[in-house]
Amino acid sequence: MLLGLATDLGGYAIMIGGTNGAHLTSFSLVDVTAHGRACGIMNPYYAVLFAPSIEKHLRAIGACYAAADHMKKTGWESLSGRELAVAAAEGMMNFARSVGAETKLSEFPNFTPGHVTRALTAAKDPQLKMKLQNMPMPMSSDQVDEYMGSVLEGAVTGDFSKVKTLPGHR
After folding, report:
1. Inside any domain, residue 170
2. Which of 25, 30, 54, 162 is deepest in the core (most CB within 10 A)?
3. 3-state secondary structure of 165
4. Whole-angstrom distance between the N-terminal and C-terminal Cα of the chain?
5. For 26-50, what is each residue's pLDDT tens digit?
6. DSSP secondary structure string, 49-87?
7. How many domains is the chain built from?
8. Which are the contacts of 144, defined by CB distance < 8 A and separation ≥ 6?
9. Is the pLDDT assigned to residue 170 strictly greater than 50?
C-alpha cells in the first residue's frame, strides 16, 4: 500500500511540477545504481545549482532536516541563496548517511568518468530540450557542460564548492 502511495505521489509531482536535473542525470547512471538512488544522490547537488529559484522549498526541507537533527537547529533560517542551498544539501547528505546511502558518485564501484560524459551528452540531446526548459531555472543545451558539468563534478567528489549556481530567477 505504501509503495502504491509513493508511486502516486511521484506521479503527481511529475505531472504538476515536472522533473529536475537529478531525474535527467539518473538515466545515465542506471548501470551503476537504481534510478531512485541516483536521484537521491544528485538532489543535493542540483539544489545548489538552482538555489536562487528554490529558496521557499529549501526553507521547508531545511525545517524538516533540522527537526530530525540532520542539520543545525538554528542559524540556517537566516541564510539565503547558495548558502541556504548548501546548508539544506548538507542536511540531505547527513540524512542519506544516517540510512547508509551513498552521497557521492565515486562511492559506486562501477562509476567511471564515462558516466559524466554520458549524462552531459544525453542532456544536450535535442529531444530532451523540454527537460532542460522545465527545470526550476530553465537551462539551454549551451549551458549543460558548464552548469550541469559542475553538478556532476561536485557529485563525483561530494564537494559542493565545485557546483556553480545558475544566475537569475524563474
Report:
1. no
2. 25
3. coil
4. 37
5. 999 999 999 989 999 999 999 999 9
6. HTGGG-HHHHHHHHHHHHHTTSS-SSSGGG--HHHHHHH
7. 1
8. 120, 123, 124, 132
9. no
- Cell numbers at residue 17, please? 511540477
Contact 91, 70 (CB under 8 A): yes
Q: Flag whether 114 is in a domain.
A: yes
Q: Do residues 154 and 161 make contact, with C-beta atoms less than 8 angstroms apart?
A: yes
How many whole angstroms separate alpha carbon 63 and alpha carbon 130? 32
Residue 121 is classified by DSSP as: H
Q: What is the DSSP string of 81-115?
A: HHHHHHHHHHHHHHHHHHTT---SGGGSTT--HHH
Q: Is residue 12 part of a domain?
A: no
Q: Is 8 inside a domain boundary?
A: no
The enclosing domain of 113 has a CATH number of: 1.20.1090.10
Q: Which domain holds residue 78?
A: 21-162
Cβ count within 10 A of residue 33:
20
